[in-house]
Write a structure and sequence with these properties.
Two copies of one chain form a homodimer. Chain A is an alpha+beta fold. The first copy, chain A, is built from 17 helices and 23 strands. Chain A folds into three domains: about 400 residues, Alpha/alpha barrel (Glycosyltransferase), CATH 1.50.10; about 100 residues, Maltose phosphorylase, domain 3; about 110 residues, no CATH class.
């Protein structure tokens, strides 16, 4: 690893998203999602699954009576909401929301135990049992999300109540877990604390926090296996005993440096990989970078859907094996795609390579935002690439796939996760080091950067995802140094102009490198061709053989029943069909629709039996209408398919 | 229903199978399967799952100590074995085997309770709990299999010990269950007793036995729902509470006359449908025939695989919905295909229509015998149409699919079921009524029939399944009347000769009707064209769209990895490819192999990413080698596929 090339994300305050597309999502989060989720966390959304989050804290703080409700990780939903609030307050001051957050933090702190411990499940069910099942009971996961919220809220408001609570909880964990004799030699069954501790370390610079994160990474999967010992010692039931996963479900089948493939629960795996990249960056440990890079390749080159979704099976919400990417029984949890975005950004920090940004963009524009309805009040947990509503109801193998977004979930990890990601979208646009700024995503924004010690104000404008016209203008300051602009992997050709004049620039790892003495008024325009593209999958992906997906720029498109009729499997796309792109400002929040001259095979079947000698299939022309995948399931229940047969 | 047209199967003693193909299977059952399964039932097969069957009876009879082992329906495995033994003794006297069977029956009778009750699970776990969970605890199922064994053994040997025990158990059930006040208004959670009682009634002519069978059919699904009431009354846990099945899992969602579709557990459904047909025949109840016919169409025209397998999902081992026939996650239990054979034969008894026999043949030659290895010692429970061994291991949705046959199962319903079916194969060849004999299956055999009161000996010779040459010779007797010969649905053309001279015959419901004064020496030869056929599925079957299966005569063929290399999904069959049929006497017990000039798409993928702009797919010629589906997985573990893409 070349530490000279490391980059860091810009502080959120230095990035003001002004983009119509992502700005719209951010407004949605501020105006709809955060208030809606507050109601949900307070169990006030009619018809939605109960959350119990606030209730649990109130009981734990002694302000109400009752029992703990929900999952062992219920606390984390509130923490993710608080983190989203923190980003929201950075985007737009809101004294009322801040007051509510402060009160919530005050409630959380009131529930904290004298030694710093804070997990309402154990506070309400018996503190004597705490730390007896790190494998399954998510205390360290709740700690992680609390810490992420605390860091975000501190950065947003300067208030340190939650930060100090997180530090006290970290200290409590450090007293109980670690390499020393008498401590538990354990690590989180559900990762996230690794990332969180590195963020905490970024503020505290307390070696203890780094050491704990590093310990969680290094100790994972070491023999004797902590989870196995712990399970025996405490009589914990091992849910995955008779599966092929066993401890790989928890990414504990091997020490991380010996893991060859991304295994098990996809969200956990993505959070672990993000944590590995974080610790690699802070410690400069090459072997960890190699581990992260190896897992990156495993995920993105062999186990990722075209939408950036990951996790092929609902059993264990998990990876299965290389090139196993079924479109209809997929899991593709929203949180897992979010985790992949986290991982990609961290890999970009280690090494600015467009491959990382390509995946980040793929996940963001497709598998992440498909998780939320256009009105911000309904959510997908599972993001399928092919849906037949009847199958979701009557095939128990597909019952995890919902043909419509849900109001809330008993296990509600995804809705607040998407809220915190969207509210912090600015952190994924660019990373920088002393002498260079890397633009990874073409999201319209105003950016304040420091280049070779000198402040520079940049304005990024972009037609993404609808057209490829982008423009970067220096709006203030002057500085010499590099601005590197990503050339997306999907783009066959782009045109560069600097201050209006055609220009060329050397490329490295997928970035155009512009080394220059930047002056206010300098304008770089970069036009990316954004043709409609038929995309094929690696032929080892059995489920996609003979099929293509239609993409344009960063967007994957899909067919919906309401545009194309039912029985989508009868539609085919001739290999010479021409595509037409049409702007539809009033459809689905304003999209570009793609149409193509396709064909529909006849559903006629001249016999009563199910099987008959094959005859040439009759077909009739049909205009195929594709909409962006992220926007599906906003017009009622119906079939949907990303892949279609090419003929 | 036209009762004049009803037919009945020939007594097993009147049918001597001499066919190389089915005779071979029968020898296997006699020489290998029955002895092997005896060892299994006695827990003496190394490495096989424990059965506990004999053990349970020994303990129940007070001859050994211990606890009940295995499932609540464990007894039925032994009963099915005994039934197979009964047929075996009909096929070939075997004093040693008969002695063993007699001893076993003596053991069974010794376990019977004074009031006739006989189920080792409750005898060993508390008789006070008997009849408290008809829904799930299989007492009536065990009774059914006991009765079927008893009837078969009585017919085979004339010995009535087990028959009398079955009658006593039937009386016990009749005292406890029925429409009268104070009795349970229940019926079996797992059907089979309906069929069994009708067989028992065939011997006893005791109206009580018919009445009970009829009650089980009529009462099923009536409101208030017995299973629901029983569950509440006894606090039985309802396993299917949160599924779409609920009581449809047990075919109890509706009274049988109002059931529109075959639902739930496929074996139970098939046994119920068989029982409906049986009761329809004995009572002449048109509404029951209509119910049976409606369910027949639901299964065979919308929910049956090309192999005759039924049950699309491992969850509930069940039907899902119309045209939902996934090839890789299929259940297709061997017992369910056997149940479909039972059902088809009973429909033929009601009305000789070739459609019924076509399905019977399809299931027998494909989805049934695929359940047993060519050496008779290993068994499939699940019969997939597409297998990738890695998926069976690493995709939990496919872990029920095994890429190799197993020695035995903890739940061992299938092995003895296939044994009893193969040993009684003669009962499926023909049915008769006073003035007609219907030949349904072209299985070589000598048949003794009575035609218009006069005995006639027939010899049926057949090249099935390898060639379509068949010959029926009158070898003794003389009689006037009809011999009807089925023209299989798969056959495009056949040639009829009578005594060497070309002949024609009228056809009705798929049978050629030969009305004649039959004399010894009369010979009817019927040559069925047996071309290799590409078969397509109804286009509503999503999983098979764009694909064909290769069949020849009654056999469905498949591709195996050991003949065709791995990645079978890359293989395509050009629509103009010619087929070649080759006799391979030394391969897989002697088969005809089909080859065709196919193509293999390149697995080359010029990029490191999973997705890339679609380019024309390169392919190279490859000879495709197809073997009969029933013979797959006899040469080690590898991929297999029935359907392949047509190009």
């Amino acid at each position: 690893m070349d530490k000279q090339k490391f980059t860091h994300p810009l502080p959120l305050k230095s990035v003001r998203v002004s983009d119509g597309f992502w700005g719209g999502y951010q407004c949605l989060v501020l105006d709809r999602v955060i208030p809606y989720q507050w109601e949900a966390l307070n169990d006030r959304v009619p018809g939605a699954d109960r959350s119990g989050c606030i209730h649990n804290f109130e009981v734990a703080a002694g302000r109400a009576s009752g029992e703990h409700y929900g999952w062992v990780f219920q606390d984390s939903d509130l923490m993710k909401w608080l983190e989203a609030v923190a980003y929201a307050l950075t985007l737009r001051p809101d004294p009322e929301l801040e007051r509510r957050a402060d009160e919530t933090i005050e409630l959380i702190c009131a529930a904290q135990q004298p030694d710093g411990y804070l997990d309402t499940y154990y506070i309400l069910n018996g503190l004597d049992k705490r730390f007896t099942n790190l494998r399954d009971n998510h205390e360290l996961y709740c700690f992680g999300h609390m810490t992420e919220a605390a860091v975000a809220y501190y950065h947003a408001t300067g208030k340190d109540a939650l930060l100090n609570a997180a530090i006290r909880f970290a200290d409590c964990i450090d007293r109980n877990i670690g390499p020393e004799e008498g401590k538990l030699h354990g690590y989180p069954g559900h990762e996230v604390a690794e990332m969180a501790l590195i963020r905490l370390y970024g503020i505290t610079r307390d070696e203890k926090h780094l050491r704990l994160a590093k310990y969680f990474i290094d100790q994972r999967g070491q023999a004797p296996l902590f989870f196995e010992e712990e399970g025996k010692r405490n009589g914990n039931r091992f849910y995955w005993e008779n599966t092929h996963f066993r401890y790989e479900y928890y990414q504990a089948g091997w020490p991380v440096r010996r893991q060859r493939t991304a295994e098990g629960h996809a969200v956990r795996a993505a959070y672990l990989m993000s944590g590995i990249a974080d610790v690699a960056r802070v410690t400069g440990d090459d072997s960890l970078y190699e581990a992260a890079e190896r897992l990156w390749r495993s995920v993105t080159r062999r186990r990722m859907y075209v939408t950036g979704a990951i996790g092929s099976s609902h059993v264990g919400e998990a990876f299965t094996f290389d090139f196993d990417l079924p479109n209809d029984t997929v899991y593709g949890e929203t949180c897992a795609a979010i985790g992949l975005v986290f991982f990609a950004r961290r890999m970009l920090e280690l090494k600015p390579r467009a491959e990382y940004a390509d995946v980040m963009e793929r996940a963001l524009y497709n598998g992440v935002i498909s998780g939320i309805s256009l009105d911000g009040t309904r959510f997908f947990y599972v993001n399928p690439l092919e849906v037949v509503p009847e199958a979701c109801e009557k095939d128990e193998n597909k019952r995890h796939v919902k043909p419509e977004r849900q109001k809330w979930f008993g296990c509600a990890c995804c809705p607040p996760n998407i809220a915190r990601l969207l509210a912090s979208a600015g952190q994924y646009i660019a990373t920088a080091r002393d002498n260079a700024v890397y633009i990874h995503l073409y999201i319209g924004a105003d950016l304040d950067v420091i280049l070779n010690g000198r402040p520079l104000s940049l304005r990024l404008r972009s037609g993404f995802p609808w057209n490829g016209q982008t423009e970067l203008t220096v709006t203030g300051g002057t500085a010499e140094g590099r601005i590197a602009l990503r050339a997306p992997g999907w783009c066959p050709h782009c045109t560069l102009r600097i201050n209006g004049a055609p220009a060329e620039a050397p490329a490295e790892d997928g970035y155009l490198l512009l080394d220059r003495d930047w002056q206010a008024g300098d304008t770089v325009s970069l036009d990316f061709d954004m043709p409609v593209t038929r995309v094929a999958a690696d032929p080892r992906v059995r489920e996609d053989i003979g099929k293509v997906a239609v993409t344009r720029g960063p967007l994957v498109y899909c067919l919906e029943e309401c545009d194309n009729g039912s029985s989508l499997h009868l539609l085919t796309l001739p290999s010479d069909a021409a595509f037409d792109v049409r702007e539809c400002p009033d459809l689905l929040g304003g999209i570009r629709v793609i149409t193509a001259g396709g064909r529909r095979e006849s559903a006629e079947w001249g016999t009563e039996g199910l099987y008959a000698p094959a005859a040439p299939r009759q077909s009739v022309p049909q205009t195929l209408t594709f909409i962006p995948y992220y926007a599906w399931a906003n017009r009622g229940v119906g079939e949907m398919s990303v892949w279609l047969r090419e003929k």
